[in-house]
Known about the structure:
237 residues, single chain, 7 helices, alpha+beta, 11 strands, Glutaredoxin, 21% strand, Nuclear Transport Factor 2, Chain: A
Amino acid sequence: xxxxxxxxxxxxxxxxxxxxxxxxxxxxxxxxxxxxxxxxxxxxxxxxxxxxxxxxxxxxxxxxxxxxxxxxxxxxxxxxxxxxxxxxxxxxxxxxxxxxxxxxxxxxxxxxxxxxxxxxxxxxxxxxxxxxxxxxxxxxxxxxxxxxxxxxxxxxxxxxxxxxxxxxxxxxxxxxxxxxxxxxxxxxxxxxxxxxxxxxxxxxxxxxxxxxxxxxxxxxxxxxxxxxxxxxxxxxx
Length: 237
């Protein structure tokens, strides 16, 4: 048994050394052949023989051969299981644990008992967001945390600032989204909006609305009230 443990430890050490040498080779060759490639955060071996995952900018994924002579941009699809492995990997890298959301940078609306939780990233000039808000009023017994995420235009930023600086943010938001009442000009500290943009970039929030539920599930795009109910039910099981 002692000999087995010694041999196993030696084998693990050899594998670690080999993996380290492989990673060093890839980093060296990619830096030489593709100097414009952003700083590599991580290199990992994929399920495909001789193919390695290159992660940059926290959640951008590329692939390369064992020598680092080729760079592959695109998705790896497991056709037998019908799974997009690249997409699953990016979703994992960009996931946000609901409890880690900076709720101080959002405004909150409570409906009914408020037991169920939902966070939404929205742009005030997003037509899909307006449609979604009209459906969302049908959902009860929920706490909604709204993160202003002005990505569509300079006017989006201006409206977001006025809503954020309103004495009643929830009312200003709904007046605009439901009744087309333009937010009154107001000024205050709007650093929260910059933090929202930075958070969104980090977690690859590229469109609005983007929804996050208490179980960590993420839904891009406007969905119906019925679909919201289904996600809320799943998230609270």
